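quick one, 530 residues, struct below
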Amino acid sequence: MKKINILTLGLFLLGIFSCKQQDFIEAYPNPGKLSSTSVERQFTGFLYTNKDYVLPAYRNYFVTLRTTLNHYVQTTGWANETGQYVPGSSGAEDIWYNYYSTLAQYRELEKIYNAQDATSQKDRKVYMLAAKVYLYDYTQRMVDVFGAMPFTDAGKISQNEGDYTISLAKFDSADAIYTMMLDELKTVATELNGITLNSTFQLAFKTQDYVNQGSIDLWKRYCNSIRLRMLNRVSASANLSARAKTEMGEILGNSATFPIVENLAQNIQINVYDLSSNINSKGFQGALESGTGWFINTAGKKMIDQLVSTKDPRLAYIFQPGSSADGQYLGIDPMASSSEQTELANTGKIAIYNTSTYARNQYIPGTLINAAEVNLIKAEYYLKNGNDALAKENYNASISNSVAQYVKIRSVSNDNSVAAPSEPTSTEIADYASQDAVSWEKATNEAEKIKLIATQKWIHYNILQAYENWAEQRRLDALSFNFVTDNANNQTLPPYRFNIPGNEITYNKANYSIIQDQDKLGNKIFWDIK
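---
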């Protein structure tokens, strides 16, 4: 039973596993090395458990994303081979493992909090509200990858006093999980509006909260922004479309009650401040530059062609020309033969992700949700609800905010192997947005404007928000991605989801059997109706 504990049970965690690395102790006490834990410490341990799936880290990028999501939306180049559209078991298990480790930490936080007296609970309520926001953000990502998952009964081995016979968790349907999260996040949004902290508890919260540094305002914006993201994701689904329209209108129509991320300063992200702590992005270089394959950080042809043809001001921030490309930006054609792809890459002709912005930028933040993303969600909402003026305003704002975000990311880099580009002026950004291929005004119908939104999401997310990128491109289905058909494999084209990992199937067999027929790579997630 090597891995039953790290899947739906969390047995070995017992809620106090969180911070294993010894050098993290100085910044945040390690609950696993304490004789007792607390709400405050457990909250930090909970956040810390999934840091490598927010900050750019080696395993997430090299093992999972390198061969899957980044290919499925062609943000990177790769060499065609048999079996390329079947997600690797190791990558799928990695993200499953980490999610349930994180969920187990949350369940232990619940247990510790529930054991407090009423006064203590009131003083520490903010930790539970913030933790729920963070967990549901992560949960949405996982549901969008796997579909039905154990959730409501999962991770409760500690709460069940170690009785694993009653802790094997049933699978909840994807739409049921979404519905539950939307219900609870709406309540959390209201409760956060009623939170006030005295100076002592404000200082404690700031110390333990390395996501928003104790800012209740930012937690409110985080909560309402991911509500918008979830509602937008299900906006065309049969059961939730009406709710999505109503609640998105409520949020966007009442910024005082439901504040959202509106500018760069409000971006929700894990910032890196001290490279001597474990909150850093040192693993990104290994993820993008290690191994024998040339394709890890190469550009895909479609994205390069889009950026070059429109003179996108983000081009030199996101990519750099190949070493022997004479300053030209070229990408890997997914429709070329493997030998052609390899030859181009091996001769240094193919552009790669900008080394100083990405791989060697040890201060690159871990993105959760940001202003450009929220702008594009708003643009789609207003477009579909007949307010073209506000749709255009938010579409254009998304471009400005995205450019500013990449300028900021490059500015914090501690690597200068590639010279920093000149910061685009407002005139240059406006000129970019006025081109026929980019301009909102030049689009003649809703479908063309949705394509503009999808294109901006694709560029803005690229490899930094790979999970969001894959989800939105599946949902919108507005960009034409061409792939070589893999006739030698049952999975001939990119999948719509990942399979449930083998360890979960083995050790949670009875519950898995109920949803087994849904667990197919070709089955769409419920919100993906195109």
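DSSP finds 21 helices and six strands in the chain.
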